[in-house]
Every structure is written in C-alpha cells, then in structure tokens.
C-alpha cells in the first residue's frame, strides 16, 4: 500500500509531462485525446489518494532524497485529497466539454498550445494544494498565473489581450506582496517548510511580533488579490468573460481556489490559530468577504453581457468562502471548504452552459436569451440547476453552504452575518432567476440557432452535453450527500484550532 503515497506526486507530474508532448503534436485531435486521458488518469489517482487518506490517515511524501526542512515535501490530508479530487473532476469535465464541442474561437494550430497551457495550469493548482513548502507554493501559483494568461489570449482578440495584461499586472502586485511575506518569515525562522516555520514562530513570535504581523498582512493582501477577494477582484470580470468557454470554466472553478487553499494553509499551518487571534486579520477577511458577497451581486445585476454577469457572480461566491475563513472557527472553515466544492462544480457548469447558449444565439446579451427552453431544453435545464444552487434552493449544495455559514456565524457570536447572507441570496435571485424565467416562459423573437433545435435530442447532442450533465449530476449528488461531506471536512479542520 506504500506506493499509494506516491500518487500525489504523479498527479502533479503527469500533466506537466503531457504538456511537454504538446509541441510535438501535429493535429488537434491528438492534443485533445492526450489531455483527456491525462485528466482521467489524474482523477483516478486523486480518488485513490482520497480513499487511502480516509483509511490510513494523513501522510507526507518527500520529493527527492532530502527530508524536510532541507527537501520539499507534499502534505496530504483529508482537506488536500478532497480538493484535488474535486479539481481533477472539474478539469476532466471541462476538457471533455472542449473535446465534444468544436473550438470555433481558436485556430487549429493553437489547439496544442492551448492544451499545453491547460495541463500546466491543472498541475500547478494541484501543486499549490499539495505542497508543504511555502516557496514551492509561490512557484506553483506563478506558473498557474502565466498559464492562465496564455489561455485567456488564445482567442487573439483585443479584449482578450487587454484582459490578460490586467490579470498579469494585478497578479504581479499580489506576487510581490507574497514574496515579501515569504522573505520576512524566512528571515526570522530560517525555514520554508510550513510545519517547520510554525514550530520556529512559536519560539520567536514574542521577539518578532511586528515582523510576524507585517508578514501575515502581506500574505493576506497578496493572496487576496490572486483569489479575487473584494475589492481586489478587478481583474476577474474581463478575464473570465472574454475567454473561451473552457478557460472561463476552469479559471473560475479551479484557478480561484488555489490561492484560497494557500491562504488557509498560511493561516493555520504557517502562523497557527494563536497568532491569528492576536491579530485583526480574520476580522478584516470576514468584513471583506461579507462586502464581496453583496457588492459582487450588485455589480452582476447591472450587466447586459450574460458571461460578465456570471463572472461578477464569482466575486460574490468567493465572498462566501472568505466569510467562512474569517469566522475563524472549525464550522466556518468547514462551510468555506464545502463552498469551494460547490462553487467549483456549479460555476464550471454555468460557464459551459452559458457558452453553449451564446454560440447558439450568437449574442452575449441577456435580453436575447428568451425562449431558450423551446430550442435548448437540455442547456437551459443544466443552467437552471446551477442557478438554483447559486440562489440557495434546498437540497442543492449552494443552500447547504448558506445554511452552514449562517449556523457558523451564530456559533461564532457574529449572527449579524446571517443578514448579509440572506441579502446576498436575494440579490442572486434578482439577476439569475429572470434568465431562467424568460428562458422557459417568455415568448421571444425567433432566433436562428447555429446548431439547430435541441428539442429532438439524438446521441450526438447528448454527447456534446454529457460533460455539463455530469457536472450537474455531481452538484446534485454533493447536495444530497452534504451531511457526510461536511462530516469528513470537519475532521480535516478539528486539529487546526
């Protein structure tokens, strides 16, 4: 059974190795096939890793001949194994969608380069999640940023180039802050391994308390920029709305979560609960999370572009995650981790279905999406599941998140946050539900859908919708089994406080 401990390393290495083969690939089909097989293998490895952790407990894996703190190690617990499994499931579904649907927004010559970047991006996010070395995490987060910028500009349009530049500029600012935080923490601990940093900080904290607080602030703001924490989200709407369907889905569903997971590890593995309580960082994260929940939804209401509306919704949804972290309790962290799963599944589902709707109607305007139920019942049905989860319809995972965040807020003595959660949910309804209602009940002008009517569903049409249906089924399953998932996630955080 010991060979199971090497699986996390292969989850990172296999996509990198696959990406190296992409420049040698001469045709589009081969690039897609390699990426699809790679993501499926990594999904299987992540599932085996999760079952190993559940059965045998958390473990560490040394990458090389040197043990920590000299060498780099991977740390795999319940939280890490669950997150990697979800990320690889979403990655597999998104790649399957891009394989089953034509890539009209990029030339065939760019397809191998696109999948090279996508594999690098996937490997980097998993690396951030699994590594126990703070500088190694920094390297992975930078690689993921560069890969994401490449995926954004693959359409080679002016708005994509501008969006990628904005993303790169803001990300560089965040990177500088994180790097300074690492420099400060290394100067007083002499370590880059997260566990060893924590042990040294417990010895020198009282002597270097101001340096520790400065470092904590630098990490919070730097990672907050990369994770689209309000008000540092300004790069997100353009980057998500101008990209290809697959890029929007994977950056929103997976890319935003890597920095958040790193923030959780920095808070509770590097600094620890005691130092956090001596600072006001958690209160600040709580306030910014609550503000993001509301303001992200307010901005979404005023959008005419349906893809931009879904992009601004991500700002609000990330607010829920930061709110849970800011509560500073096991229940809050558990609700936050559960919403990472929820958002990964539902937001990828929303971006893929919206992309299909845009291609069929040949317009981004929300007003032109009426009467979709007649021509695209499957697409609108899948979109509706994502919407109902976002607004908080019971049984679906979005409702479970909001319920648990509300309970965690009350337990933490911050019951007033329940009002913010309710207000955010009402705002979600204002911009999401009209699209669904008009799609099913409004009689719009006749549209010449590019791909024909979806009413007579044949095998080919089901094949193109299969990845979205898979994500929708997974979202419903997560909602139904939420009790067990929350129980498992609670175990992951019980020793952090």
Low-confidence stretches: 445-460
- Using the CA coordinates, give the radius of gyration: 22 Å
Q: Quick check: average pLDDT?
A: 87
Structural class by SSE content: mainly alpha
Instruction: State the distance separating the first and last CA atoms.
Output: 31 Å
User: How many strands?
Assistant: 2
Instruction: Walk across the major sheet and give the strand order.
Output: 1-2
Helix content: over 70%
Assess the beta-strand content as a share of residues: under 5%
Number of self-contained structural domains: 2
Q: What is the general shape?
A: globular
The DSSP helix count reads 20
User: Helix-strand pattern, N to C?
Assistant: HHEEHHHHHHHHHHHHHHHHHH
Biggest pleated-sheet summary: 2 strands, antiparallel
Keywords: Cell membrane, Membrane, Oxidoreductase, Transmembrane, Transmembrane helix
Organism: Peptoclostridium litorale DSM 5388
Family: Belongs to the CPA3 antiporters (TC 2.A.63) subunit D family.
EC number: 1.6.99.5
Explain what you see.
- By secondary structure, the protein is an all-alpha fold.
- It has two domains: 1-273, no CATH class; 280-497, no CATH class.
- 75% of the residues lie in helices and 2% in strands.
- It has helices at 7-21, 28-56, 78-100, 111-130, 134-152, 158-189, 194-204, 209-226, 236-241, 245-255, 257-277, 281-301, 306-326, 330-361, 372-375, 377-391, 397-411, 417-441, 459-480, 482-493; strands at 59-63, 72-76.
